[in-house]
Every structure is written in structure tokens, then in C-alpha cells.
Design goal:
alpha+beta; 31% helix; 4-stranded mixed β-sheet; 112 residues
Length: 112
């Protein structure tokens, strides 16, 4: 967030984070594999927030004392009611994908 000017306009981010800060937010869609090992990697990198969807539930996880804890409010989007995202995720496969994406984008715009 305070690092935004540092990376704004860059075409490539240093993957080893030697020059560039870690991302403010990671989004994990994790339906087939275990996430626990990746959480430790993200913690070592200093990623402050992870959004995770496992095919059944959506969670927001923030880094505290080198461990991720589940929370109800995003650090990156504190005014966005993120629990509503579950409603959109549950409609995947039931609704036309492009229509669902359009509805989701409209919802996000109406919230911020």
C-alpha cells in the first residue's frame, strides 16, 4: 500500500523480492491441493493477506506473528463486504460465467 509508487508502472516484479516489496494480497483458488505449505512461504515473504477459496468456502487470512489467522474483514479492502464473495463463488457452474463476472464487477464497483 505504501509501496504502490515503488512498483507502479513496472512491467516485471522481482520474483525474489530483493528489490520489490511483496504483494499486498494473494488470491488462492485451491481446489485440488493443500494450501498449508504455501501459507508458510507467503508468511516468509511477508504477504500481509491471503484470500482463499477451496471449492466450498471463502476465507480471508491475515498475517499475525508469522502465522495466518482467519478474519472477517480485509486489510486491503476494509470497506468491501467480502463475505458476499461466497455468494458469487457458489454460483459458478450454475450461471453463465461471463454474466457472473459482469455481475461481480458491478457489485464491486457499487461497494467501493
Amino acid at each position: 500500500m505504501s509501496e504502490r509508487p515503488v512498483i507502479k508502472g513496472k512491467k516485471r516484479i522481482n520474483l525474489h523480492l530483493q528489490q520489490d516489496p511483496p504483494p499486498d494480497l494473494v488470491v488462492e483458488i485451491d481446489i485440488t491441493s493443500s494450501y498449508k505449505n504455501r501459507f508458510a512461504v507467503y508468511a516468509d515473504l511477508g504477504v500481509p493477506e491471503i484470500w482463499r477459496y477451496d471449492g466450498n468456502s471463502f476465507s480471508i487470512n491475515v498475517l499475525q506473528n508469522q502465522k495466518y489467522i482467519s478474519v472477517e474483514q480485509s486489510l486491503a479492502f476494509p470497506n468491501l463486504p467480502l463475505t458476499e464473495i461466497s455468494n458469487f463463488l457458489e454460483q459458478v457452474g450454475e450461471k453463465d460465467y461471463l454474466e457472473l463476472v459482469k455481475e461481480f464487477r458491478q457489485w464491486v464497483r457499487s461497494q467501493i
